[in-house]
Specification:
The complex is a heterodimer of chains A (about 425) and B (about 725). Chain A has about 425 residues and is of the alpha/beta class. Chain A folds into two domains: about 180 residues, FAD/NAD(P)-binding domain (3-Layer(bba) Sandwich), CATH 3.50.50; about 160 residues, 3-Layer(bba) Sandwich (FAD/NAD(P)-binding domain). Chain A contains eight helices and 24 strands. In chain A, the strands form seven sheets. In chain A, strands 13-19-14-15-16-17-18 form a seven-stranded mixed beta sheet. A six-stranded mixed beta sheet of chain A has the order 5-2-1-11-24-23, sandwiched between helices. In chain A, α1 runs parallel beside α8. Chain B is of the alpha/beta class and about 725 residues long. Chain B folds into five domains: about 130 residues, Rossmann fold (3-Layer(aba) Sandwich); about 180 residues, FAD/NAD(P)-binding domain; about 130 residues, FAD/NAD(P)-binding domain (3-Layer(bba) Sandwich); about 70 residues, 2-Layer Sandwich (Alpha-Beta Plaits); about 150 residues, Rossmann fold. Helices cover about 35% and strands about 25% of the residues of chain B. Chain B is built from 21 helices and 31 strands. The longest helix of chain B is centred in the first third of the chain and has 20 residues. In chain B, about 55% of the residues are buried. The chains are: A alpha/beta (about 425), B alpha/beta (about 725). Chains A and B meet through α1, β3, β4, α6 and α8 of A and α3, α6, α7, α10 and α12 of B.
Chain lengths: ~425, ~725
C-alpha cells in the first residue's frame, strides 16, 4: 500500500473532520465528502459544548494551522495540501474491492466556487437567494438557494468581484478510487412527530433540545432571546422531558446517553443566564456520567425542579401557554403544570446516510447504528475490511469521544500502511 | 535600519468603504516603506501572483492589509510558501475588513484606524527575522507506565507504527483489573479472553519489552529526551532508561469503603465490593466468605462513595453496568438466586440499557432508595433498605452484600506528576490538555495519558483511547525525525539569571532548568548562576508566556520580540492624544481574534477609537508592554483573552495575562494614575457581543477619565525608571 492511495471520509461532522485532518497531516491524501454546504454537522447548531462549556465551533488544529484548536471558520480546510473537501456531495455507489474501492460521488451543482468567494456580501445585498449559513461555515463561502431566486440574481452574478457564481452549474457524477473508507455519517435528532402525548409540530411551543439550542444561541434567529415560538410572548417556565423515543420499545430501546447532560446544560444556562425563568425536568433516571455529574449538581443548586415520572399530556392553555399533566412516581400522583416552553429530549437516531452506507458497504449494524466488525475484539472502529467508522455513526457519543474514535481510525489506517 | 517593507492593500473586490487614496499616501510616507500596492482581490490567483513578485522584491518583508489573517495567511503560506518556496515568515497582516471597514460605517474613522494599525505592522515587520525549518532526530522509543488494557493497547499501537516500546508494570503480570472480570459488556467475553490475543501479540513482538515488578521513581528531561528512573523487584538500585515520550496508563483504584460505618465493610466478611465479587466469579469460588455457605440471596448497593459529598462527588460511570454484568453472571450460574440492586439512578449508556432490560426480565429486583444499615443478627447478615418509590423501609437477610464502590485515581499520580509535569484534575485523575478535543494529551508535551487514569471508562473506551493516544505521540515524534518551522521562544543563555519563572509557568512545561557545572569556578558574579533555563524551540508552543515573565528579556519569541512589539505600540499610537483618545487592545490570536472577526462578519458596530494589536496568546503581554502603551499615549488599554480554563495554550496563558493586568493596575494606582485605565476581558466567539461591550466600556473610560498624565506632560518618575 503506498501513501498516495486516497482515503475517503464520508461525513464532515466532528468525527469525520478529525479523521480527515489527522490523516491529511500524516501525509495521507484524503477526500472528505459532506452532504451539506458546510462542514460541522450537528455541532454547528449546538451553541455551547459540554464538557468544556465553550462554543461548539472549535475543532482540531492542523499541521498547517498549528495550535490546540481553531474555530471552524479559520480551519483553512480548503488550503490543506492533502485534503480535498467536497461539500454538497453524496456517495451514490461503491464498487471495487477492499483496498481498492471505486466510489461514485454525486456532486451537487456548485453554484458558488468556494475558492473564489470572498464573502464580500455584495450578492447577499442584491438578492436573498444568496445566504451565509453561519459566520462559522466552512468552506467560508456564500450558498445559492435556487428556490429563492429573484430578478436580481443575474446582477449579482455580473457584479461578483471574483466571478465566483455560476447559476448554470449542474450536478455531476464522479468516480474516485480509495483504499479505505471511513463512515462518519453522524446521528439525527429524532423528531417525535406522531407521539400523541407531546403534540410536536402541532403546538409551536413544543420543541426539541436542538431547537432550544438555536433559541439560546446569540447568533441564532432570536439572538438568544427565550420567547414562545407561538406568539413571541415571554417564557417564564420551561419544562423538559427526558427519554423521548429512547428507552422505549416502540421507538429506540437504547439509552441515547448524552441527552441528560445536554438537557441539564441548557437548564443551567437558562437558570443562570435568563432572569426569572423556572426550569423543570421530568425524568426516569438522571444519567450524568462521570464528571458530568457537575451539571446535575449545578442545576439542582440553581433551583431546577426535578420530577421523576412521565408526562401524561400536553395541551394548549387558555392564556396562550401550555398545560402539562405529569405523573410523579415518587409522590405517586398526577400533577398539573402551566408552562411556556416544552422541550423534548429526543433520541439520537442513526442518520439516513449511515443506513445507506451500511447497505452499500455490506457492514453490520446494531439498532440501526454502524457496528464493529468483531464486537468481541474491543476494536470498535473497525467495521469492515478497509472500512472504519467513528463518532455518532457508531452510536450516541460526546464530542471528545467522537474525536478519540476518529484518531483511532487514523491510527488503524496508518498501521495498515506501515 | 535599512530593511525595506512593501505594503499591500486589498479592496476586497472594490467593496470595502475605506479611503484607499489617503491610505496609500500616508503609508508611503512611513519610514522604511518602499512601496504601496492596492489590489482588488489578493486572495485570488491573480492577486497571489502579484504578491509573489512583491515578496521576492523585498525579501519577504510585506505588510498585507486585507481581510482576516485567519483565512488569508494559510492561503498565502500554502500557495506561496509551501508551493513556491518563498519565505512568508516575515509577512505581517492587518485586518482592514472585519476589524475596520465592516464595523465602522464612518469612512474617515475606519481609514484612520486602518492607517494606525498598518503603521504598527510596518514597524514590527522592519525588525522581523526570517524563520527557518529545523529538524532533529529523536529515538523512536516510547515508555508505557502501566500494563493494564490501556497500556497494552497503547504499546501494540505504537509498535505497529514502528516504535520500540517498554512497558513498566508494577505487579508481576500484565492485565490489570480486567483480567479478573468474568464478563465485559458489550463484548460478551471475559476479561481474560479479551486479553489473550493481545498478550500473545506482545509476546511475539520484538519491539515491545515488558518489565514487571518495576516501579517508576521519577522522570527527567523533555520530549525527545526523557530519562526514566526505575526500581526493579526488591532491589534499591536505580536504573535509567532513555525514551522520547511517556504514556501514563496506570488505571484506577477501587474505593474500599472501610470508613463507611453503615455498610460494615471490613468487619462483616459477607460484605464485599463489586470487584471482589468479579474475582470470586472468575475464580469460580462463589460462597459466603464468613462460613463457606451457599449464596442464594444477594443485595447490591450502588453509588458507594460515588455521588457523595464526603468521598467522590462525581458518578463513577461503570458501576451500574458492572453490577448488572455480575448479576446476570450470578443468575447464569444459579437461576434461583435472588439479586436486589439498590440504586439512586440506574445509569447504563446506549446499548447497555439492553442488558439492564434483560436483567429485569431475568428477575433482578431494582429498588430505588438507599441502604440505611447493615448488621449481624443470629449469625446472619441483616440489611435495612429505604424504598423511595414506596416511601417505606424493609429488612432482609442476604448471603452477600455487594458494594458498587467508587472508581478512584490510582496511587502514585502526585509523585509522578512532580517529575512528569502533567496537571491533576480536581478528582485526582490526570487532567487532560483540553477536555473537548485533546483528551489524551496532558499539559506536558510528550506525556500522554490513556485509560482509566484520566477518568472512569469502559474497556472499549480505554482501547480506543490507547489507540488515539498512540497517534498523538506519533504526531509529535514523527517516527523519530522531527521537522518543522522553528517558531517559538529563543533563549539567550548569557542573559538568563536562573530565576526559573519560565520553567514554572510555561503552560506546556517546556523550559528546563539545567545545572551549570562551571558556575562554581567562575570568577565574575554574573556567571555564578547554578541553574540556567534551556528551551527546545521545536517543543515550544509559541505563546510567549515565558517572555512576558522573563525579568531580563533572555527569552523572546523569535517572531515577536520585545523590541518589535514596543515599536509596533509606538507606531500604532503615533496620533493618539488628548484630542483623540485611543484604547489600545491587545488580543490573543485564538478565541479573541475569532470573536472580533465574527463581530465583523456579522457587521456589528462598535466605537472606532480602538486600535488592535494581535499577540499569539494574551499571556505574551507583560506589564511593561501595558505601561509602554500608556507611555506612547494610549488613554486606556484592554487585553482580550480566552475564557478561564479555555486558554488555547495549555490552559494558563490567559491567567498569566490576568496577573500582568492586575499588577499594571496596581502600579498605575500607586503612581497616581487611575487603575481603571487597564482591564482584561474574556472573549467567546459564540457570543460576539462580548467584544462590543468591552470596547464600549474601555472607550467610555478613556472619555470619562480624560487626558492621561502623559498627555498632560505630568507623568511621574516611573517613566524615567523604565528608560
Amino acid at each position: 500500500m503506498i501513501l498516495s492511495d486516497k482515503v475517503l471520509i464520508i461525513g464532515g461532522g466532528v468525527a469525520g473532520l478529525t479523521a480527515a485532518i489527522e490523516l491529511a497531516d500524516s501525509g495521507v491524501k484524503t477526500v472528505l465528502v459532506e452532504r451539506q454546504h458546510t462542514v460541522g454537522g450537528n455541532a454547528l447548531d449546538l451553541y455551547k459544548a459540554f464538557p468544556t462549556d465553550d462554543c461548539f465551533y472549535c475543532f482540531e488544529a492542523s499541521r498547517f494551522r498549528p495550535g490546540i484548536r481553531k474555530c471552524f471558520y479559520r480551519s483553512a480546510l480548503l488550503d490543506h495540501p492533502n485534503l480535498e473537501l467536497r461539500t454538497n456531495t453524496t456517495v451514490e455507489a461503491v464498487a471495487g474491492s477492499p483496498g481498492n474501492f471505486e466510489v461514485t460521488l454525486m456532486v451537487g451543482p456548485q453554484y458558488v466556487d468556494p475558492m473564489r468567494c470572498i464573502m464580500c456580501g455584495l450578492c447577499q445585498k442584491l438578492s436573498s437567494a444568496f445566504v451565509l449559513i453561519s459566520p462559522q461555515c466552512q468552506p467560508q463561502a456564500v450558498v445559492y438557494v435556487p428556490d429563492q431566486a429573484d430578478d436580481n440574481v443575474k446582477e449579482a452574478v455580473e457584479k461578483c468581484p471574483t466571478k465566483a457564481i455560476n447559476l448554470e452549474a449542474q450536478p455531476t457524477e464522479e468516480v474516485i478510487r480509495a483504499s479505505d473508507i471511513v463512515v462518519a455519517t453522524g446521528y439525527h435528532e429524532m423528531k417525535p412527530v406522531g407521539m400523541e402525548e407531546y403534540h410536536y409540530e402541532e403546538l409551536p411551543d413544543v420543541v426539541t433540545q436542538l431547537e432550544l439550542a438555536r433559541m439560546l444561541d446569540p447568533n441564532g434567529e432570536t439572538s438568544g432571546q427565550l420567547v414562545r415560538p407561538s406568539d413571541g410572548g415571554p417564557v417564564k417556565h420551561v419544562m423538559m422531558v427526558q427519554c423521548v423515543g429512547s428507552r422505549d420499545e416502540n421507538y429506540y430501546p437504547y439509552c441515547s446517553k448524552i441527552c441528560c447532560v445536554f438537557a441539564l446544560k441548557h437548564a443551567d444556562i437558562i437558570a443562570q443566564e435568563r432572569e426569572g425563568v423556572q426550569v423543570s425536568v421530568v425524568y426516569m433516571d438522571i444519567r450524568t456520567y462521570d464528571r458530568h455529574e457537575r451539571y446535575y449538581r449545578k442545576s439542582r443548586r440553581a433551583g431546577v425542579n426535578f420530577i421523576r415520572g412521565r408526562v401524561q399530556t400536553v395541551s394548549k392553555a387558555k392564556d396562550g401557554g401550555l398545560e402539562v399533566i405529569v405523573y410523579d412516581s415518587l409522590l405517586d400522583r398526577y400533577l398539573k403544570f402551566r408552562v411556556d416552553l416544552f422541550v423534548l429530549s429526543t433520541a439520537l437516531e442513526p442518520s439516513a446516510e449511515s443506513n445507506e452506507m451500511a447497505q452499500m458497504l455490506g457492514i453490520r449494524t446494531s439498532n440501526g447504528f454502524v457496528a464493529s466488525l468483531d464486537p468481541t475484539s474491543g476494536d470498535e472502529v473497525i467495521v469492515g475490511d478497509h472500512v472504519y467508522a467513528c463518532g455518532t455513526a457508531l452510536g450516541p457519543a460526546e464530542v471528545p469521544e467522537s474525536v478519540t474514535q476518529a484518531r483511532a481510525v487514523a491510527l488503524k489506517i496508518l498501521q495498515g500502511r506501515k | 535600519m535599512d530593511s525595506k517593507v512593501a505594503v499591500v492593500l486589498c479592496t476586497c473586490g472594490g467593496t470595502l468603504q475605506l479611503d484607499y487614496e489617503s491610505l496609500r499616501q500616508e503609508i508611503a510616507k512611513e519610514e522604511g516603506v518602499t512601496g504601496v500596492t492596492v489590489m482588488d482581490t489578493l486572495c485570488q490567483s491573480e492577486g497571489l501572483e502579484a504578491l509573489s513578485q512583491i515578496l521576492s522584491d523585498v525579501d519577504g518583508r510585506v505588510v498585507i492589509a486585507a481581510c482576516t489573517s485567519q483565512k488569508l495567511q494559510p492561503r498565502v503560506d500554502n500557495s506561496l510558501g509551501q508551493g513556491r518556496g518563498l519565505n512568508t515568515s516575515l509577512t505581517h497582516y492587518v485586518n482592514i475588513r472585519e476589524h475596520c471597514a465592516w464595523v465602522h460605517p464612518d469612512i474617515e474613522e475606519a481609514t484612520k484606524k486602518a492607517l494606525d494599525m498598518i503603521r504598527g505592522a510596518v514597524a514590527a515587520t522592519r525588525l522581523a527575522q526570517p524563520l527557518q525549518v529545523a529538524s532533529k532526530a529523536v529515538d523512536a522509543h516510547v515508555t508505557v507506565i502501566g500494563g493494564g488494557i490501556a497500556g497494552i493497547e497503547a504499546a501494540l499501537s505504537l509498535s505497529s507504527l514502528g516504535y520500540k516500546v517498554t512497558i513498566f508494570e508494577v505487579t508481576d503480570r500484565l492485565g490489570g483489573h480486567i483480567i479478573s472480570l468474568p464478563v465485559i459488556a458489550p463484548t460478551g467475553k471475559s476479561g481474560a479472553e479479551l486479553l489473550s490475543g493481545r498478550l500473545e501479540a506482545i509476546e511475539k513482538d520484538d519491539n515491545i519489552t515488558v518489565m514487571t515488578n518495576t516501579r517508576v521513581k521519577f522522570v527527567e528531561g523533555e520530549m525527545g529526551n526523557f530519562e526514566v528512573h526505575y526500581l526493579q523487584g526488591e532491589s534499591e538500585e536505580e536504573n535509567v532508561l532513555k525514551t522520547s515520550a511517556v504514556v501514563v496508563a496506570t488505571g484506577f483504584r477501587e474505593f474500599k469503603p472501610t470508613e463507611m460505618e453503615e455498610y460494615q465493610y471490613g468487619r462483616n466478611p459477607d460484605v464485599i465490593t463489586q470487584f471482589e465479587l468479579s474475582t470470586m466469579l472468575t475464580e469460580g469460588r462463589l460462597q459466603r466468605p464468613s462460613d463457606g455457605g451457599p449464596v442464594k440471596e444477594v443485595v447490591m448497593v450502588q453509588c458507594v462513595g460515588s455521588r457523595s459529598e464526603d468521598y467522590k462527588r462525581d458518578c463513577s460511570k461503570l458501576c451500574c453496568t458492572f453490577a448488572i454484568d455480575n448479576a446476570l453472571e450470578l443468575i447464569k450460574n444459579d437461576p434461583d438466586i435472588h439479586v436486589r440492586i439498590i440504586y439512586m439512578d440506574i445509569r447504563v449508556p446506549f446499548e447497555n440499557e439492553l442488558i439492564y432490560k434483560e436483567s429485569r426480565e431475568k428477575g433482578v429486583d431494582y429498588i430505588r432508595g438507599r441502604v440505611s444499615m447493615v448488621w449481624r443478627e443470629n449469625d446472619k447478615t441483616r440489611v435495612r433498605i429505604y424504598d423511595s418509590l414506596l416511601n417505606q423501609y424493609f429488612e432482609t437477610s442476604p448471603d452477600l452484600v455487594v458494594l458498587s464502590s467508587a472508581v478512584l485515581p490510582p496511587d502514585g499520580l502526585y509523585e509522578l506528576s512532580e517529575s512528569l509535569g502533567f496537571a491533576i484534575e480536581y478528582d485526582g485523575h490526570i487532567k487532560e490538555l483540553y477536555g473537548k478535543l485533546r483528551r489524551n494529551e496532558t499539559r506536558r508535551r510528550g506525556v500522554v495519558a490513556v485509560g482509566a487514569v484520566t477518568r472512569p471508562q469502559f474497556v472499549s473506551e480505554a482501547i480506543v483511547e490507547a489507540q488515539a493516544g498512540a497517534l498523538m505521540i506519533h504526531n509529535e515524534l514523527q517516527g523519530g525525525s522531527v521537522e518543522k518551522i522553528a517558531r517559538g521562544a529563543l533563549l539567550d543563555v548569557d542573559e538568563c539569571v536562573g530565576c526559573s519563572l519560565c520553567a514554572q509557568q510555561c503552560p506546556r512545561g517546556v523550559p528546563l532548568m539545567i545545572e551549570q557545572t562551571e558556575a562554581e569556578e567562575s570568577q565574575t558574579d554574573s556567571d555564578k548562576f547554578l541553574f540556567k533555563a534551556s528551551i527546545d524551540i521545536l517543543n515550544c508552543h509559541a505563546c510567549g508566556v515565558c517572555q512576558s515573565l522573563c525579568p531580563t528579556g533572555a527569552t523572546q519569541l523569535n517572531f515577536l520580540t520585545n523590541e518589535q512589539l514596543w515599536d509596533q505600540i509606538a507606531a500604532t499610537l503615533r496620533d493618539a492624544g488628548p484630542e483623540y483618545p485611543i484604547t489600545l487592545c491587545f488580543h490573543c490570536e485564538e478565541c479573541s481574534v475569532s470573536t472580533i472577526d465574527i463581530v465583523g462578519t456579522r457587521r456589528l458596530q462598535y466605537p472606532a477609537n480602538v486600535r488592535l494589536i494581535p499577540v499569539p496568546c494574551a499571556g505574551r503581554v507583560s506589564m511593561v508592554d501595558i505601561l509602554k502603551a500608556f507611555e506612547h499615549g494610549a488613554s486606556t488599554v484592554m487585553i482580550a483573552a480566552c475564557e478561564t480554563d479555555r486558554c488555547h495554550i495549555g490552559g494558563t496563558g490567559n491567567e498569566i495575562a490576568q496577573i500582568h493586568v492586575d499588577v499594571a493596575r496596581e502600579i498605575l494606582n500607586a503612581i497616581g494614575w487611575d487603575g481603571r485605565r487597564v482591564d482584561m476581558f474574556r472573549m467567546f466567539s459564540a457570543e460576539p457581543e462580548r467584544f462590543i461591550v468591552a470596547v464600549k466600556e474601555m472607550t467610555e473610560r478613556a472619555e470619562s477619565l480624560g487626558p492621561t498624565p502623559v498627555h498632560k506632560g505630568t507623568a511621574g518618575r516611573w517613566m524615567e525608571v523604565s528608560e
